[in-house]
Design the sequence.
């Protein structure tokens, strides 16, 4: 391309003439050429290379995180549904967790054109057998979901033009190895006719334009749903056209949208109430017969509520009891307070900017901990200077896991900045 | 991912792929195509290589987070206007002098270009064209002929005839405008 010659400083010859003519009809190109004329720098080429590498690495890294988070979120969601159904079933008293059948669909995506893979014609996914094993220690008070190992083994035959494909996959949550291009979703009802179903994608943001992670996006009246990833993005496959999507996040006004287009972006408005005024009522009623999904009897001790009184013992495990609100669990650093302090000390990067010079003091952060042990809804309670605030948030966001709790926690990060 | 096939995809195909699969690498490849042009645009408005480089990366972050919210038909024109706005906004914030963009107003339709490029687009028309070229002031005629007939670059013309680049540009621009007026008058 002769634009590169131009960037290198070459201004003579027919090639360049062609480029200059092109620019007469193309303001974009004309502006760019003017720019390279205005600023003489032998390094332009090198700079472009650097920017390209940066962009590629940013989009590549991001990809892995999104995939990982997406799959992890859907697995958690599946487990969550299991627990949900269990809690509403009075008859189930068995303690040892065993296996039930969940219906799932595997949606194969991203078949690139011109690749040598056999073309898949309507991948008629059959229901898969999913085994969920929950190993949990009976005596443990608060077991985060991370102790749950889930193995998914799927066998599925797909009609192809000339060959039969067999897909066997295993998803291990502990490892970072994720199968490419596979999205797992839990679906309450098995759909055989997909003609009128949509894949709905979108982004959920707040009124300030910030992405909202962990928003529950569900099809109203069903158990189909996903949660948004760290960038507020979600993908909800197999949604019947015209059905109502619900967007729910604690602290925000829930919203409903009709699924008519393949892209539905939502802005959630913060609820006027402050967090501690929200009462979490545990669960509604649901008959077992009406549930199609995984029903997993689990060890009651594995639930994160340590029973103290009779009321609490039944709380959350029997439908329509709401004693959960009385019990507050404070999240703690999973590695212990001492270790966490050590981490802060070892990893803190003192800000260098003008506004922060010579400042001394603490940044106080308030936040919640989600079911995966990660801090969410981080707010600055006491600010020092913008860069120090950001650094404190960075430390928290990238730091060790926390134990799950339902209360807000506060941490202090001390800064002593050079003058 | 098959790199060779991806490079062949059109902008809009890449964008669709990104929207449909959520694979951000498609977007990275698409944005990379435009880095040289975007960088050039920033150089024009900002006038500083370091700041322009920063601006291109800021625009990337901006566009990356917003692209899924918009129905972008033509990525090229969209990203151009985003970049231009971004650079102008930066200038406004820094209270620097704003370079006014004269060029975009003077962009001519390619009618004349076609007339000059295509040989034998009707005896009558090429006769009119020749007449009109003859009527141009010397410098304009010379620049027009060199640029469109002899396929010389601006710099080639500078080397040959001893004008400055800006002079050459304005001779060609004015020449084109005069030609257009002349041809329209005589065609009726």
Sequence:
């Amino acid at each position: 391309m002769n634009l590169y010659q131009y960037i290198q400083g070459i201004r003579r010859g027919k090639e360049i003439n062609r480029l200059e003519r092109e620019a007469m009809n193309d303001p974009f190109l004309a502006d760019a050429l003017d720019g390279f004329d205005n600023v003489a720098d032998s390094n332009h080429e090198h700079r472009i290379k650097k920017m390209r590498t940066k962009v590629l690495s940013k989009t590549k890294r991001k990809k892995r995180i999104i995939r990982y988070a997406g799959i992890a979120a859907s697995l958690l969601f599946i487990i969550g549904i299991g627990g949900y159904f269990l809690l509403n079933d009075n008859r189930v008293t068995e303690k040892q967790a065993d296996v039930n059948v969940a219906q799932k669909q595997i949606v194969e995506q991203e078949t690139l054109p011109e690749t040598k893979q056999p073309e898949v014609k309507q991948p008629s996914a059959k229901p898969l057998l999913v085994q969920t094993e929950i190993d949990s220690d009976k005596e443990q008070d608060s077991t985060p979901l991370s102790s749950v190992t889930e193995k998914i083994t799927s066998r599925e035959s797909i009609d192809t033009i000339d060959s039969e494909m067999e897909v066997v996959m295993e998803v291990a949550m502990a490892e970072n190895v994720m199968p490419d291009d596979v999205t797992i979703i839990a679906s309450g009802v098995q759909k055989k006719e997909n003609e009128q179903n949509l894949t709905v994608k979108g982004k959920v943001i707040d009124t300030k334009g910030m992405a909202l992670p962990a928003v529950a996006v569900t099809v109203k009246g069903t158990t189909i749903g996903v949660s948004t990833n760290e960038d507020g993005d979600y993908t909800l496959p197999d949604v019947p056209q015209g059905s109502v999507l619900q967007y729910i996040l604690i602290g925000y006004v829930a919203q409903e949208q009709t699924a008519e287009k393949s892209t539905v972006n939502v802005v959630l408005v913060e609820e006027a109430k402050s967090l501690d005024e929200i009462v979490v009522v545990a669960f509604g009623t649901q008959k077992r017969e009406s549930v199609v999904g995984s029903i997993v009897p689990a060890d009651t001790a594995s639930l994160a509520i340590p029973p103290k009184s009779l009321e609490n013992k039944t709380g959350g495990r029997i439908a329509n009891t709401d004693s959960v609100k009385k019990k507050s669990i404070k999240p703690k650093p999973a590695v212990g307070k001492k270790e966490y302090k050590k981490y802060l000390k070892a990893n803190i990067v003192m800000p260098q900017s003008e506004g922060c010079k010579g400042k001394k003091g603490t940044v106080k952060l308030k936040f919640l901990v989600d079911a995966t042990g990660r801090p969410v809804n981080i707010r600055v309670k006491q600010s020092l200077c913008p860069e120090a605030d950001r650094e404190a948030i960075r430390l928290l966001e990238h730091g060790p896991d926390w134990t799950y709790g339902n209360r807000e926690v506060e941490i202090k990060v001390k800064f002593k900045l050079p003058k | 991912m098959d790199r060779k096939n991806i490079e062949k995809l059109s902008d809009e195909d890449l964008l669709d792929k990104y929207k449909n699969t959520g694979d951000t690498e498609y977007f990275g490849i698409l944005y990379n195509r435009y880095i040289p042009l975007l960088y050039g645009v920033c150089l024009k408005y900002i006038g500083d290589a370091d700041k322009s480089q920063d601006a291109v990366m800021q625009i990337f972050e901006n566009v990356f987070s917003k692209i899924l919210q918009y129905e972008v038909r033509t990525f090229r024109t969209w990203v151009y206007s985003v970049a231009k706005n971004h650079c102008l906004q930066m200038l406004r914030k820094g209270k620097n002098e704003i370079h006014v963009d004269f060029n975009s107003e003077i962009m001519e339709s390619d009618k004349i270009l076609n007339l000059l490029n295509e040989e034998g687009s009707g005896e009558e028309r090429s006769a009119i064209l020749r007449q009109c070229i003859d009527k141009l002031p010397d410098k304009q005629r010379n620049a027009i002929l060199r640029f469109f007939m002899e396929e010389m670059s601006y710099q080639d013309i500078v080397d040959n005839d001893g004008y400055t680049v800006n002079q050459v540009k304005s001779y060609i621009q004015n020449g084109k405008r005069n030609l257009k007026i002349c041809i329209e008058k005589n065609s009726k």
Notes: Chain B is about 75% helix and 0% strand. Residues 105-187 of chain B form a domain with the Arc Repressor Mutant, subunit A fold (CATH 1.10.10.10). The CA atoms of residues 42 and 136 of chain B lie 36 Å apart. Chain B touches chain A through 60 residues (CB under 8 Å).
